[in-house]
Amino acid sequence: MKNAFGSFAKKESLHILRDKRTMLVVMLIPVILMVLFGFAISTEVNNINVAVVAGERTDGVRDAVERLSQNEYFTFKGYITPNNIDPWMRSGKVDAVAVFDSDFDKRIAQSAAGLPTKPVVQLIVDASNVNTAASATAYLQSVILGSASPQTMFETRMLFNPQMKSAYNFVPGIMGLIFILVCALMTSVSIVREKEMGTMEVLLVSPVSPSKIIFAKMIPYFAISCIVLITVLLLARYLLEIPMSGGIGGIFSLSLLYILLSLSLGLLVSTIATTQMAALLISAMVMMMPILMLSGMLFPIENLPKFFQVVSNIIPARWYIDAVRKMMIQGLPIAAVWKNYAILMGMTVAILGVSLKKFNDKLE
């Protein structure tokens, strides 16, 4: 009985060891999760781009700027004029602006002398990302207080999201995740299911070309995704009251391109996976986890080590989420996110071309 049990255990062990895919999943997934979660989940915010508006560059102002320049959390972008605050904030050149009055030093001296006068610094912060805005404000106040009077008053003005609603931050990220779920995952599983059931061969002997068959299978998911897109945009605008001041047409156009990209990813997965379980696993690990960790959906990309910041450039959701945030919340037109659009277009053409080629090669 013991020998039989041992034989069965040995047989099962050898079976698992010979299954390279299972071993790869079992051994690699824990490492990936530990590394991604360990580096991506961070409450710190790094590389906060800050500019300064100062009527006069007094000793107190220069001291504050020096402390900003030397602080690892900030990148000092220089002095600007009041007229440049809005365009610099909307274009993403800076995350925050510190505005010093021309009598800043005088008020510090008067406060030190016991007079009721208090120095005032106005902080203007991009609040389209709630987490970044809260951290940037706290860090800025602590740095400026180090070079000013303890009685310094801060007047904080949050741009683009004055009420600090978390929905402004998460809705673009959720959109980037939803279309991967609906398009990539469901499309890949659908095509692989046809292979498993043997019905794909029946379709391929029809007079319709393989490419047309694939596109025909993608059309229903494209239509469903369009309905989902309209529903999400209506909920975001009228239930969550997200402004979408950049224009609904631009957001819709960019989203349609992202949907096509997601469908292409699903087709690519279907050429790699041989079973529905494998398709689900690849979609979940290769696409879902990077979107959650490396796209900026939950955590700022600036928090990541340089290596993962570079890796995040190949995550399509990063460029989509960033562009949607700018158009929805900051009110930028689609022309202002042309770089994101061009990158997504290039990814779509490349992935669709590779997917169709791999699919035709397998048929041959």
Explained architecture:
With 364 residues, this protein is α/β, with parallel strands linked by helices. 65% of the residues lie in helices and 9% in strands. It has helices spanning 2-18, 20-40, 59-70, 85-91, 104-112, 130-145, 167-197, 199-204, 210-239, 248-272, 276-294, 306-311, 316-328, 338-363, and strands at 48-54, 74-79, 96-100, 120-126, 153-159. A five-stranded mixed beta sheet has the order 2-1-3-4-5, with helices on both faces. Helix 3 (59-70) links the parallel strand 1 (48-54) and strand 2 (74-79). The longest helix has 31 residues, at 167-197.
Cα-atom radius of gyration: 27 Å
Mean pLDDT reading: 75
Kindly estimate the percentage of residues that lie in beta strands according to DSSP: 5-15%
Low-confidence stretches: none
Q: What is the number of beta strands? A: 5
Q: Please give the count of helices.
A: 14
Order of helices and strands: HHEHEHEHEHEHHHHHHHH
- What is the helix fraction of residues, given as a range? 55-70%
The first-to-last residue Cα distance is: 50 Å
What is the makeup of the main sheet?
5 strands, mixed
| Spatial order of the strands forming the largest sheet | 2-1-3-4-5
Morphology call: elongated
